[in-house]
Request: fold
Amino acid sequence: MFVKQNIIEFKKTLPKEITLVAVSKTKPISDIQEAYDTGHRIFGENKVQEMVQKYKVLPKDIEWHMIGHLQRNKVKYMAEFVNLIHGVDSLKTLKEINKQAKHHDRIINCLLQVRIAQEETKFGLTHNEIEEILNSEEFKNFENIRITGLMGMASFTSDKEQVTHEFQSLKDFFNKLNNNKFFNFQLSTLSMGMSGDYQIAIANGSNMIRVGSKIFGERNYIS
Ligand SMILES: *Cc1c(COP(=O)(O)O)cnc(C)c1O
Reply:
């Protein structure tokens, strides 16, 4: 009952235009089912194997989002069903996603991850690297992927100004790409904000938040 009440109450506080990815990593099937039973359909995982196991036993109308750092050799396991891959951070990974999507005769939606945090440990591309990818001939020939937006993770800090600044920089870059007549596509999704900073993210232009512990409770980490 805990998850059910949490997700219902949490969604009531969100503006309607915000898409909630309920991050269920490390949490049992029963928790996801509880959230599902309230009508929620979008769930995020950060490990491919775990997502595949959950996909197999849960209802097939769930939209599965891969939010974690991606290892290229794992793409094939989720290519059949994954709905959105948030953390794409190289042309090589895009190439592999395109190949596996083609194999399953699908188009896979991807977000490019932008490095906005100061922390060395956080993944992501620089603005230049993203423009390089989007301009590359190789990218233009990928027929089985669609870049639908950008994703970013702010620094893990209590300094709200810094977090605000990082989210703003991502929103500015998102607008810049959308105003660039050079690219013949529009980005619609800006994935930023987690349990600790989603309010700041929304205030700064996020339209997709990835929230785990606020819905499912704290995680007991081994990984
Ligand atoms: C775990 C995770 C989240 C959710 O974190 P919470 O703090 O539990 O909301 C969001 N995004 C990514 C990339 C994650 O790995």
About this structure: The domain at 2-216 is CATH 3.20.20.10 (TIM Barrel). Strands lie at 19-23, 42-45, 63-66, 84-88, 108-114, 145-152, 189-192, 208-211. The chain has one domain: 2-216. The mean pLDDT is 95.
